[in-house]
Task: structure prediction
Amino acid sequence: MSETAVRPRRPSPPLMALSDAAAARLASLYASGEAGRLLRIGVRARGCSGLSYELDWVDGAGPGDETVADKGVTVLIDRKATLFLIGTVMDYETTAFSQGFTFTNPNEKGRCGCGESFHV
Result:
């Protein structure tokens, strides 16, 4: 009788991770003007490359939302966006001319010239 070796399952990559700057900015927003609400991240068809990130404040998780908890804060991911966002790192950047959340997405194959949309 031959025993078959069971291969251990490789852990799935995290759906999304937050940088320290993004977590700090979200914690600040959650503690002030957006107290009691959560940030929901999704993607939608828009822009010259096809997709853009969509950020919305919601009162709670919907039936189609995935929950990501990282560095002490929680964000929601629209289930329809999960395949586009696997492995993405959300950051918060401040430059001389702008500030806001940015995304480093390993699934992106390209971006439009203005940087507002992407394709996979």
Summary: The chain has a mean pLDDT of 83. The chain is about 15% helix and 40% strand. The two ends are 48 Å apart (CA to CA).
